[in-house]
Amino acid sequence: MFLLNTIQPFTVLLLLTATILLIFLGKEIKKPAVPAIALIAFLILLVVHSIQLCMQSYAEYYVNIRYCIAFELSMVFVTFFSYLWIDDIASKFYKKKSVDNSLDWFWKQI
After folding, report:
1. Between the CA atoms of 63, 67, 73 and 75, what dihedral angle is there, to the nearest 10 degrees?
2. Which helix (H) or strand (E) holds 88?
C-alpha cells in the first residue's frame, strides 16, 4: 500500500521549506494565489490521509497516519493565515477595497 509519510524529518524539512518559500514569494509579488498552492496541497494530503485512516488495509499505519493528519492540520492553519495576510497586503498595495478585512477579527483578539 502507498503511504505518503509526511512526518519523516527529511519530508517535514522539505515541506516546511517549500511552504516558507511560497509564502515569501507570494509576499514579494503580492499575489495571494501563491500560498494558496500550498494550502490546496495540504488539503489534498489531509483528505488522502483521512481516507487512508478509514481503510482497513492501513490499520498497521494507524499511528503514523494520525501524526501526518496532525501535521497537515497545523500546516493548513499556517498557510490559511498566510493567505489572508498576503491578501490583505495585496489589497492595500493595489488600493483595492476588499469585501471584508479578514484579519481584523484576529488582530482585535490579540
Report:
1. -160
2. helix 62-93
The conformational region for residue 47 under phi > 0 = left, psi -120 to 50 = alpha, else beta, is alpha
Could you report the per-residue pLDDT of 66-83, keeping only the tens digit for each?
999 999 999 999 999 999
In angstroms, the Cα distances linking 91 to 22, 34, 101 are 19, 15, 10
Q: Do 58 and 52 touch, CB atoms closer than 8 A? A: yes
Place of cell 494520525: 66
Taking only the tens place, the pLDDT of each residue in 25-35 is 999 999 999 99
CA separation for the pair 85, 51 (Å, rounded): 31
